[in-house]
Write a structure and sequence with these properties.
alpha+beta; two-stranded antiparallel sheet; elongated; 2 helices; Head-to-tail joining protein W, gpW; 66 residues; 15% strand
Length: 66
Amino acid sequence: MATTQQLQEAKAALHNLMTGKAVVSLQRDGRKVEYTPANKAQLQNYINQLESELNARSVRRAFRFY
């Protein structure tokens, strides 16, 4: 399940890649994953996945009936 902290970390990592840092690493699914400029598309896909999970969770909460 995605968390806002994971999303913030992933966005910061992408920012670091875009501003010239050669390698960034994140904890993902219990393991360390390193990203380089060559695979920044994979990092963007991970960000998109986290955003989708978080958005889906917030939509489900908005439509709960009591």
